[in-house]
Design goal:
Largest sheet: 6 strands, parallel
Shape: elongated
Number of domains: 2
Oligomer: single chain
Structural class: alpha/beta
CATH class of the largest domain: Alpha Beta
Order of helices and strands: HEHEHEHEHEHEHEHEHEHEHEE
CATH architecture of the largest domain: 3-Layer(aba) Sandwich
């Protein structure tokens, strides 16, 4: 009887122990499942661009989407752009929306180098990684907000100088030129103008006027027309992007000066290629829109995978910019 009771007790203990082991085993996979679920949660990256009416940014968006399509397991992508290059308020609103929808990273081509900084700070404070592409955020304004935002993009001054140097071969000292600038509050517009000026100073050309065409065809056309009217001896129009160069080409034709006034641009969009071929545009610069977006996304993904803080991310990743003449 006692032996029987002992056997029952031993069996009961074994069952209890086995039950405890099973319960422990059940807990482990649950924890492991949770860890796996967290690891499997793909980061969501938002690409926020300037005007999608500008072919340059459509190229950027296509490049980013292609990259995501080849890396679907790595990250999800949301792309947004504004209608007009100057609609800074709409771009700020898009960034606000991305903060509310809790994206993990924002890759931003800011419409304004200073005005976007406060909403960038808001994003960073919300724990979102922010990477700056295309147009650099103002370093002094970032510093005043104690922000480090990595910049991925080309040296715009260097690119514009290459274009200006090529034009300079067609000019002589004292020749008059005009500069059609992008949105004047953007760093890349300022840098391109600086690059153009450097090239023109080297050849001794006289810069009659610098006016903003706000990156757009129609505004570029209006500014170029006004310059040609006011300064009838202008020999060249140096345009901060190809959209404005397209506008300038129309202005030159309308003024009856086709073949007499050189036009240069910047971006190497598809729409400019026929004009390069037939000489209506002398030169432009390719700053590889698609690559900029991809480099920006990679910078953000690396920061996320390494669990790095925004404050550790300061720096510049310089992307290429090349002269294009055909």
């Amino acid at each position: 009887m006692n032996d029987c009771h002992g056997r029952h007790s031993r069996t009961r203990r074994r069952v209890l122990n086995a039950g405890a082991a099973l319960a422990g085993a059940a807990l482990l996979p649950l924890g492991a499942t949770r860890a796996l679920a967290q690891a499997a949660k793909k980061p969501k990256v938002a690409l926020v661009m300037k005007s999608l009416a500008n072919e340059f940014f459509l190229t950027m968006e296509t490049g980013a989407k292609d990259y995501q399509a080849h890396n679907t397991g790595k990250f999800d992508l949301v792309t947004n752009g504004i209608k007009n290059e100057t609609d800074t308020a709409a771009q700020i609103q898009i960034v606000e929306q991305m903060i509310v929808s809790k994206v993990d990273a924002i890759v931003l081509a800011p419409a304004d180098s200073k005005a976007l900084v406060p909403v960038v700070k808001k994003a960073v404070d919300a724990g979102i990684i922010v990477v700056n592409i295309d147009n650099r955020l103002d370093p002094d304004v970032l510093k005043s907000k104690d922000l480090n935002v990595p910049f991925v993009g080309p040296d715009n001054a260097k690119g514009a100088e290459k274009v200006g140097d090529f034009l300079a071969k067609k000019l002589k000292s004292g020749d008059e030129v005009g500069i059609v600038e992008g949105v004047s509050t953007t760093t890349n517009a300022q840098q391109r103008t600086a690059g153009f000026k450097t090239a023109m100073q080297k050849v001794g050309a006289k810069i009659d006027s610098v006016q903003s065409g706000e990156w757009e065809i129609d505004k570029g056309n209006a500014v170029a027309s006004a310059m040609l009217n006011e300064y009838p001896n202008i020999k060249a129009l140096l345009c901060g992007n190809d959209n404005m160069a397209i506008g300038a080409v129309s202005a030159v034709r309308a003024a009856g000066k086709a073949g007499k006034v050189y036009v240069v641009g910047y971006d190497d969009i598809d729409a400019i290629k026929p004009m390069l071929k037939d000489g209506r545009v002398l030169a432009t610069a390719n700053q590889y829109a698609a690559k900029q977006a991809v480099f920006g996304i990679d910078t953000a993904l690396k920061a996320l995978s390494e669990h790095r803080k925004q404050s550790d991310l300061a720096g510049v990743v310089e992307t290429p910019v090349d002269l294009v003449t055909v």
